[in-house]
Recover the amino acids of this structure.
């Protein structure tokens, strides 16, 4: 996740200003805060060591400077005030900072390196390519102004499902990625054997990033990215991937279920384990049944059919 200067938004789209949330805390509390901030922002977070105080960890999350910022900031401050009660004095620090696009880009390039994010998928930025071995596949991601570098647990959970499908029965020929972001899931599905994919997103910058990344991976002719509303899709897909928030999944339960071909699989993630039951219930109400579930570091994934 970063800003890049070579991806320019259309003239009528103003690039958002991002606010960095930086929280230092002991390891256990930092990991809990990372889950809280990811759920609050709906975006990925960074979790690393505090260079000044090795006993602590640093969580970085990002919020857009919009009408909801004040409410989000208040929730974070309330959460941190509660966190302080469980930590030694002086070991919890919270700071907010506005990041211009060029600073955002530099911050993400500093932390984004090739990484094996699942058993077979290496995600690498174009400025530092990885070296796949054996059955590993490399997905090159330059996220631009869209989120998705494969480092978040929800993305890794969806990749696990895709790898299992590829290993067992082979990837379906056609894939739909709802909320495609940087295009990482659609591109990984293609690398694992799908023939073509459609990625849709409400953010034009995400569509642009997905198309650009498809070109980086030599898959521009196999990935289509568009702002087509889910409700307007006329096609049904044997595999549908949706890594978005729990509330978005619940709100879109009907059209997501309707986009699934008979006998196909719908992979849902982007929510915490404690939120999984209500997400599952929303899709069962549409006539789908649960095939399997998985979890990683408090995040969950459901496979429905």
């Amino acid at each position: 996740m970063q800003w890049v200067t070579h991806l320019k938004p259309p003239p009528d789209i103003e690039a958002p200003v991002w606010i960095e949330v930086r929280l230092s805390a002991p390891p256990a509390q930092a990991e809990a805060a990372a889950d809280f901030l990811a759920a609050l922002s709906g975006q990925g977070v960074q979790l690393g060591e505090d260079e000044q105080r090795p006993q602590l960890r640093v969580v970085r999350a990002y919020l857009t400077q919009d009408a909801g910022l004040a409410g989000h900031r208040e929730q974070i401050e309330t959460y941190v005030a509660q966190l302080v009660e469980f930590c030694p004095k002086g070991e919890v620090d919270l700071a907010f900072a506005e990041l211009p696009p060029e600073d955002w880009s530099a911050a993400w390039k500093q932390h984004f390196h090739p990484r094996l994010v699942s058993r077979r998928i290496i995600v690498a930025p174009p400025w530092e390519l990885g070296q796949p071995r054996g059955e590993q596949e490399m997905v090159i991601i330059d996220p631009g102004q869209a989120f998705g570098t494969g480092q978040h647990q929800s993305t890794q959970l969806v990749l696990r499902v895709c790898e299992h499908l590829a290993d067992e029965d082979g990837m379906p020929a056609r894939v739909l990625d709802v909320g495609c972001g940087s295009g990482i899931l659609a591109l990984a599905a293609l690398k694992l054997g799908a023939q073509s994919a459609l990625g849709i997103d409400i953010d034009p910058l995400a569509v642009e990033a997905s198309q650009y990344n498809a070109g980086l991976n030599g898959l521009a002719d196999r990935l289509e990215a568009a702002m087509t509303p889910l409700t307007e899709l006329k096609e049904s897909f044997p595999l549908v991937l949706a890594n978005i928030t729990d509330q978005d999944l619940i709100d879109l339960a009907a059209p997501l279920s309707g986009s699934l071909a008979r006998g196909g699989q719908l992979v849902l993630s982007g929510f915490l384990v404690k939120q999984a039951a209500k997400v599952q219930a929303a899709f069962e109400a549409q006539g789908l049944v649960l095939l399997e579930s998985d979890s990683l570091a408090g995040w969950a994934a459901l496979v429905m059919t």
